[in-house]
Amino acid sequence: MDPRISPVMVAILVAPFALLGIAAVVFDLSQSRRNRRDGVLATWGDLRITKSLLIVGCRHNAVRIPLTGLAATVTETGSSADPTSHRVRVTIDDRAGEPIYREQPYSYGSIGAARTFEILLNRAAGPAPAAAETVALPAAA
């Protein structure tokens, strides 16, 4: 047997990793394109926010929920001493239906993204600003 690795063996070993990398890039580009088309402001997991909708899920089976009446909260569960149980949970309360729960493992990135998502959803779902009142000034004599 030849001690050198043949080009065919290298191709067999490298090809699966190259294909997985290409698939990941294509998926990321298609998700970015879909987010731009939908006008997405923020994402967290499979939750996406537009100016007027919460989109839950991906692709054609995504559920679109109006933002009015929604409120998001972020909590940390588990112990920071045990990294396997320390998780970030986003809860979206819908006054008309069941709450939506999503969790991810804790990291500085996941907690930061969850807090940003919470702030943007709560701002977008908040009540409309009150109309400015006009003040009648006394007529000059």
Write the layout of secondary structure elements.
Elements: H1 7-38, E1 42-44, E2 47-49, E3 53-56, E4 63-66, E5 70-77, E6 87-94, E7 100-105, H2 108-125
Antiparallel strand pairs: 1-2, 2-3, 3-4, 5-6, 6-7
Low-confidence stretches: none
Can you count the beta strands? 7
The rounded distance between the terminal residues' Cα atoms is 111 Å
Secondary-structure element order, N to C? HEEEEEEEH
- Judged by helices, strands and strand pairing, the structural class is alpha+beta
**Radius of gyration (Å):** 24 Å
**What CATH architecture of the largest domain would you give?**
Roll
Q: State the strand order across the main sheet.
A: 1-2-3-4
Query: Which of globular, elongated, flat, extended, rod-shaped describes the shape?
Result: elongated
Number of domains: 2
Largest sheet: 4 strands, antiparallel
Helix content percent band: 25-40%
Predict the CATH topology of the largest domain. PH-domain like
Determine the strand fraction and express it as a percent band.
Answer: 25-35%
What is the residue-averaged pLDDT? 84
What is the count of DSSP helices, taking H or I runs of 4+ residues? 2
Q: Which CATH class of the largest domain is shown?
A: Mainly Beta
